[in-house]
Amino acid sequence: MNRTAKPPGGTLLVAPRRDLCLDFANTVSYRGGDPQESLHDFGELVRWCAANALLTADGCERALRWSDQHPEQAAAVFADAIAIREASYRIFFAIAARRVAEPRAVAVVNRALAAAPARRLLVRGNKGFGWQIDRDGFSAPALLAPVLWSAGDLMVSPDTIRLRHCSNQLCLWLFLDDSKNGSRRWCSMQACGNRAKAHRHYLRTRTA
Ligand SMILES: [Zn+2]
Predict the structure, then answer these.
(1) Which residues, chain by chain, have CB under 5 Å from ion ligand 1?
(2) 187 CA → ligand 1 middle, Å
(3) Is 135 left (phi over 0), alpha (psi -120 to 50) or beta?
(4) Which of 162, 164, 156 minimizes the C-alpha distance to 187?
(5) What is the mean pLDDT of residues 167-171?
(6) 20 near 52, Cβ under 8 Å?
(7) For the structural domain made of 11-207, what CATH number should be given?
(8) Residue 199 pLDDT more than 90?
(9) Where are the domains of the chain?
(10) Mean per-residue pLDDT for 44-73?
């Protein structure tokens, strides 16, 4: 056996980020106000997967060609992916708000995890080890496998204590608070933090 050779076929997934599931959940902005969707169809979903290293450029092209030939199936995969995203958002929002996650939302993620390709094989790639997975077609659990692992890993990890939703009630993006004293309130200072500061300043000067 050639011990350095990659097993034939499959995809090598290297270093999925631990908060990948939150990035996916945050593909809707302003959930507390006028929600802005950034994934409108299967094509946008697979491009998001490629941009976040869930799919290679080649895999992305293949998925797009497949969706051209199977538009109805692609639309069903897209609907499944959005259902997984919404269930994940509800779970993580509940955890961030120190509430109990809805069992229905957990069941959606569990069903998808069970259908996702298994993380069984570690293979050395150019930049270190990665998970070798075999995607069986373009189902939502297959495309989103690293998102689902990230969701499961985060749910069972002590990091849930650092899970927050943005204090801007219009934004409500999710993030992990890695600040030393655990006091981060905004998804980003540039976006929501500065807006809140400007608003406080406005209120102060108005009532002065
Ligand atoms: Zn925000």
Answers:
(1) 166, 168, 171, 173, 187, 192
(2) 4
(3) beta
(4) 164
(5) 94
(6) yes
(7) 1.10.3300.10
(8) no
(9) 11-207
(10) 95
